Structure formats: C-alpha cells, structure tokens
Amino acid sequence: MSHMTYLEAAVVGLVQGVTELFPVSSLGHNVLIPALIGGSWASDLNVAKPESPYLAFIVGLHVATALALLIYFWRDWIRIIGGFLSSIRDRRVETRDQRLAWMIILATIPVGLVGLVAEHPFRVIFGKPIAAAIFLMVNGVILYCGEKFRPRASVQADEAVIREWDEAMARGGAGSTADSASAAAHAAGHQAVRQQEIALAIQADERLSRVGYAQAVLIGSAQILALLAGISRSGVTMVAGMFRGLSREDAARFAFLLATPVILAAGVLKIPDLLGPLGNGVRGQILLGSVLSGLGAYVSVRFLMKYFQTRTLTPFAIYCFVVGLGSVIYLGLIK
Fold first, then answer.
1. Which of 54, 139, 163, 292 is most buried, judging by how many CB atoms fall within 10 Å of its CB?
2. CB of 250 closer than 8 Å to CB of 208
3. Is residue 148 a contact partner of residue 318, using CB atoms and an 8 Å limit?
C-alpha cells in the first residue's frame, strides 16, 4: 500500500500554498512534481489514483489555503458577510458590500455546480502528467494573451486606480508639516500602513461592486477551466476580469475573493476522506503539509496584491509555457 513521507508532505504542501494563488496552477504542479521526481513520489502522490491517500492530503491543503485567504482578507469578509446578512434582513441590495456579496455568490455558482458533477472525471481523465504539462502550456498562452490583448478599458482602469492612489496620498498629507508627518510615520509605523491598506481595499471593493452581476458571473465562470490540472484558477479569473474592463490589481483582488469560498468548499466537502480510511497513517503528514501550505498561501497573497499594482502576468506566462514544454519533452521523450 502506498504511503506518504514527511518530506513529500512538506514539499508538496509548500508548493500547493504558493501555486494555488500564483497564476501557475497548483493542481498542475501537484501532478507534475511527483511524476518528474519519479520513484516512490510517483506512486505515493498520484492524484488520479482513486484510493490514494494523496486525495486526503490535498483536502487538508485546500482547507489551509482557504484559511490563509480568510485571515488575509478577514476585514473584507466581515464587511461582505455583513452586507449579505443586511441584504437578507432589509430585502434589498443597495450598498457596496451588499452588491459585492451577491456578486461573489452568483459568480461562484457555475464552478460549484460543474465541480460537483465533473470534478472526479476531470481529475481521473485529465489528472495525468502529460495532460497536466500540456494544459500548463495552455495556461501560459492564456496569461500571455491576457496581457498582450488586454482591452483599453482595463488599461484605463489601471490609470484610474493610480490616480485614486495619488489623490488619497495627497489628501492624507494635506495640512501636515514634513516633521510631523515623519514623526507620525515613525510612531504609527505598521498601523499606518495597515490603515492605508484598509482604505485602498474599500476603494477597490467600491470599484468591483460597480461591475454588475452578469459580468461577475462571466468572470467567475472562468474558474471552471481550473478543474483541468495545469490551468490556474487565479490566472484565468484575472484574465477574464481584465477582459471585462477591470484593472490588473482589481482583477487579482476579485480572483482571490472568488477563490476563497470555492477552495474552502472543495476542502470541506472532502473532509470525510480526510477523517476516513484514506487519512489513516498520513494525518501527521497532512498536518505538516497543511501548516506549510497555509503559510505559503498567506505570504503569496501579500506579495501578489502588491505585485499586481504595477506588474504583469507575463513572467508567469513564460514560466508556465517553459515548464510545461520541458515536462512534455522529459516525460514523453526522455523518461
């Protein structure tokens, strides 16, 4: 019977946490890494095998990743959930948080329905190393085209976000001397930075809430492609958002907000696997991998939210295409 070592759990857990949010496909990496290493890794970590403990392991990683997103966006989720509850109480949807809550709900429905029906056959049929490598190349092409053919509306949205940032900075600095500003910054330190992040998050949610329900559903539906190992959930959702006129930063934020309930639900629905026979003998490994996955996801989302303020998807596109092509050559022709 196959098992899982703590080294395997640590490596895959950390890779899962990082690649779930980076637009490079966590499932694709979870399929390719064991195949590329070979040996016991290939037998222990086979996502397409029906009774593999690797399935229970991935459940734990998904829950940890979702918790990391909830921790990072906890203030935002309190507002959004409050908006949902108030919309039910008042029987109307008017405020920013109410609109955003229902946009997330509606945008999650398509991938939820398809996932319930097709997750298993997608994993068994397409969860093969060669298929994952090919789809990773496809993911690279999607990311590249998303940047190369980005509509003017998305570029203008980027410019508008920068203007809002500059105006907010100007208002924040109005009426204070350089010395007092320096002293305040020194005294407040991290708190001042965090308050600034909160204000920018509220501005971003205001912009997102104006996208509309139909557009939100279209953007959310792009997550269906991520059922294919090698296609990145955050990547295709970002590209869909940019093609619907969102700035790159807002597209990333919306992608992460949409991913949170989907990833959490995928993990929670499979918890019986974790607690059942599939989890026997690997629960310690699951705990280690989950901790590393959660830490990797939290660091990743902090990095990416800043990265996409000024930078593009192109480096990730190149990475996906090169790694996918290299994996096809190695697995198909050399190994």
1. 139
2. yes
3. no
What single-letter DSSP state applies at residue 152?
A: H
Q: According to DSSP H, which parts of 209-232 are helical?
A: 213-221
Do 157 and 250 meet the contact criterion of CB atoms below 8 Å apart? yes
Task: For residue 260, give Cα distances in angstroms to 65, 102, 145, 211, 223.
Answer: 8, 15, 26, 19, 12
**Which pTM does this prediction carry?**
0.88
Both tokens of 178, joined, read 């350089």
Section 283-295 average pLDDT: 91
Q: Which of 99-113, 143-157, 272-286, 302-316 has the lowest mean pLDDT?
A: 272-286
Residue 101 identity (one-letter amino acid): A
**Tokens of residue 2, six digits:** 């196959």
What residue segments make up the domains of the chain, in order of their start? 6-334
Query: Cα(148)–Cα(136) distance, rounded to whole angstroms?
Result: 18
Q: Which residues contact 270 (CB under 8 A, 6 or more apart)?
A: 55, 56, 58, 59, 62
